[in-house]
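Q: How would the structure tokens look for this protein?
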Amino acid sequence: LPKQLGYGGALLLQLAVFAALAALLLRARPSAATTTPTTSAEPATPAVVLRRIFRAPWPAVVGGAAIGVLGTFALFRGAPLGVTAELARLARAAGNALHLLPSRLEGLDEIAGCRPTDDPHVVSDRGIFVLALVTGALVASLAAGEFRWRVARPRALALALLGGVLLGFGAFVASGCTVGALLSGVTAFSLHGWLFGGGLFAGAFAGVAVLRRVAPPSAPLLDLCGESCGMPELRLAALLDRPGRPDRFTVVADDPNALEPLLAVAARRGFTGSVAPADGRGVKVEFRAGPRVP
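A: Here is the predicted structure in token form.
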């Protein structure tokens, strides 16, 4: 974009697009009165501050600003944030060691962005970022009390493996992932970042449509134990959107943290849910048709 519009023009264009997107999202967002519970003001004690940081959800403005500051400092340091480059470097090193790759990869070696880079170290600077990303997610989940071991079903494991392969291949072809191509690309005024974002949203919508067809629902008991990667919400939505949906049904899930998104999916379709004893199988929610929630 700077090559065609200059840095000032690129900045103004992107700010205008962001403002338009923000306006659309604010109009589509439910009102605060129906989504935010009223709570009394709490004193800013250390325990309250830690709970708000590690357990309570952050406002979108705070989270977005934090990511923006982090990405800006990374860019000033000399390289934008990215994950694909280090994974590609390790994959290429393994392929070379097994004599599976030619000395030159046409196309990939000429593309800028998150392409594999030569680095004599076992773990490069971007590799340290990847390790820190995973470690930080683990620490955050432990601090928030959301970490737990779960045994996935074979179907969930197969879908996760297939999804990982497709994500990795897509990141190679697109020269980056949601971090390196989308966030860092837009930060660098790259048109590639915007094209990547458009393809990302289009692919997500198409993927949801496919998953809802390959995950047929059941009623009146919907067993979601062992499901992952958003499949519980997809299966519940598929059940409630089909013709002749039941007026009453029960959902069993092995993760208490899945209750909130499941209740939100049901509420948008005019159902209310109440938690019932699960007989040692995670959590059980009984849904029934009720007044539609705005």
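Residues 74 and 80 are 5 Å apart (CA to CA).

The first strand starts at residue 221 and ends at 223.

Upvote if useful.
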